[in-house]
């Protein structure tokens, strides 16, 4: 497998930032968050976003596909808003040349609030209402129809009101699932898109295009976490072959854009980013060269792979105890910020890093311990028997790689408040203070030095108790008494 060895070595140099840099920035941010009082006994949990890391991920994604397509090939990277539904994040990505993939009226509203232009927005939900479709078509947002009934609705709408929206159809190449059933979109019975291998389905799809000259895009999303890269490539290849067949039958390049979806898996086991967007793009280039030879425009819809590694949950250890000889750190991070990990720990293991009460990485012998959350059920654990330096009362547990589908996906169990989310940048980011402030040596620097080298911006305020009451029917206290 010397080929893969080369690919990996190549990847390390060019496709991604040094994972150590990311870890150093994260440690600095944790230290600074404690020193600056962002997290403290009264605000015992926060989410942190590494702005430098997000910018660099966006740049590498763009570079990855530029490297495998001829200059001038239209490529829209539409970030899957569901992975991080936060307006400042969408705005940051917009500035980095990334659009938005939305799948609900709420996500579309967020993308619009962030200023993502309609031409950089793609609507993909499997349950679009007539009102949603009408709005998208009026705005000129790209729409991927999920099924024949939705296509019939679009037929009627475009007949009565012409649209500038590029319109496509989502297909399910039925290539099979990955290791996580709930996230596998390309199984034989997945609810998404037109199931291509079903009897008569392929012919129906081809005819649907021949009947509708304005149907110019083809969409498939064969994700997600737990899918081997090779399987994703097979899904894209099947989609490309269908586009070629349709264009052949039409006798023209009717399908001008292929939307390959997102779904690149993320390595939750270390700071290493693997696979990279560039590895995926190169694999597509060698396996589906026709897709990238400039005849087709491209849309991608990556979510997790852009954001996961750039977020950290930082939670205070409220109490440290033991039960049946097992040490337990009772923290403020549990099911409300990590629902997937708590309910399906085998599919969604997360790394945890131990910090002391001053926000410095803890050292000492590893001790198997449970990292528990604040919710009132026994299974509210982020990790069981995890070997870590022993966490003590007042220390901090950092839950790593939680920038996508974690702290931005609050689950209001026990009416636990949504934590505040803060973006951070370290001084090195400006290129000004590369030597003095924040090199690896800065770890050993003074506390003040560490704190000053990190700047925070509020992305989302912590939820207040007044908001919890208001969102829980507080203004309708007597609503049920009068029935
Ligand atoms: C969820 C989703 C994505 C993003 O998936 P990731 O695994 O976060 O990259 C992209 N496209 C569609 C249609 C989706 O449903």
From TrEMBL:
Residues 1-24 are annotated as: Disordered. The lineage of its organism: Bacteria, Bacillati, Actinomycetota, Actinomycetes, Kitasatosporales. Residues 10-24 have a biased composition (Basic and acidic residues). Residues 309-403 form the Orn/DAP/Arg decarboxylase 2 C-terminal domain. InterPro entries: Ala_racemase/Decarboxylase_C (IPR009006), De-COase2_C (IPR022643), De-COase2_N (IPR022644), Orn/DAP/Arg_de-COase (IPR000183), PLP-binding_barrel (IPR029066). Keywords: Pyridoxal phosphate. This is Diaminopimelate decarboxylase. It comes from Streptomyces longisporoflavus. Its cofactor is pyridoxal 5'-phosphate.
């Amino acid at each position: 497998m010397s080929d893969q060895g080369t690919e990996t070595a190549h990847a390390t140099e060019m496709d991604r930032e040094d994972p150590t840099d990311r870890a150093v920035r994260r440690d600095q941010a944790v230290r600074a968050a404690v020193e600056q009082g962002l997290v403290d006994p009264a605000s015992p949990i926060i989410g942190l976003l590494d702005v430098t890391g997000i910018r660099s991920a966006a740049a590498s994604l763009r570079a990855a596909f530029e490297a495998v397509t001829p200059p001038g090939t239209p490529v829209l990277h539409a970030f899957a808003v569901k992975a991080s539904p936060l307006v400042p994040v969408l705005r940051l990505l917009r500035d980095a040349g990334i659009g938005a993939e939305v799948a609900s009226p709420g996500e579309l509203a967020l993308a619009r609030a962030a200023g993502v232009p309609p031409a950089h927005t793609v609507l993909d939900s499997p349950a679009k209402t007539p009102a949603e479709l009408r709005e998208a078509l009026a705005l000129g947002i790209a729409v991927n129809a999920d099924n024949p009934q939705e296509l019939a609705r679009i037929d009627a709408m475009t007949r009565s009101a012409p649209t500038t929206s590029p319109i496509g159809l989502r297909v399910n190449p039925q290539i099979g699932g990955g290791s996580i059933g709930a996230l596998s979109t390309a199984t034989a019975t997945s609810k998404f898109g037109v199931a291509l291998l079903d009897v008569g389905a392929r012919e129906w799809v081809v005819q649907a295009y021949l009947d509708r000259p304005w149907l110019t895009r083809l969409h498939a999303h064969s994700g997600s976490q737990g899918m081997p890269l090779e399987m994703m490539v097979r899904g894209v290849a099947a989609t490309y072959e269908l586009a070629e067949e349709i264009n052949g039958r039409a006798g023209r390049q009717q399908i001008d854009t292929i939307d390959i979806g997102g779904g690149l898996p993320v390595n939750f086991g270390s700071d290493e980013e693997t696979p990279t967007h560039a590895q995926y793009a190169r694999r597509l280039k060698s396996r589906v060269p026709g897709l990238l030879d400039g005849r087709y425009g491209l849309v991608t819809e990556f979510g997790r792979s852009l954001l996961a590694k750039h977020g950290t949950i930082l939670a205070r250890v409220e109490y440290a105890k033991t039960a049946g000889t097992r040490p337990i750190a009772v923290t403020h991070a549990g099911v409300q910020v990590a629902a997937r990990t708590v309910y399906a720990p085998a599919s969604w293991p997360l790394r945890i890093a131990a910090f002391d009460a001053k926000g410095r990485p803890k050292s000492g012998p590893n001790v198997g311990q449970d990292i528990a959350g604040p919710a009132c059920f026994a299974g509210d654990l982020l990790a069981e028997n995890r070997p870590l330096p022993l966490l003590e009362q007042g220390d901090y547990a950092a839950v790593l790689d939680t920038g996508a589908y974690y702290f931005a996906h609050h689950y209001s169990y026990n009416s636990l408040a949504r934590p505040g989310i803060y973006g951070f940048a370290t001084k090195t980011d400006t290129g000004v203070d590369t030597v003095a402030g924040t090199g690896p040596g800065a770890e050993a620097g003074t506390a003040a030095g560490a704190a000053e080298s990190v700047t925070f911006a509020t992305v989302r305020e912590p939820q207040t108790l007044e908001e919890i009451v208001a969102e829980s029917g507080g203004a309708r206290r007597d609503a049920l008494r009068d029935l």
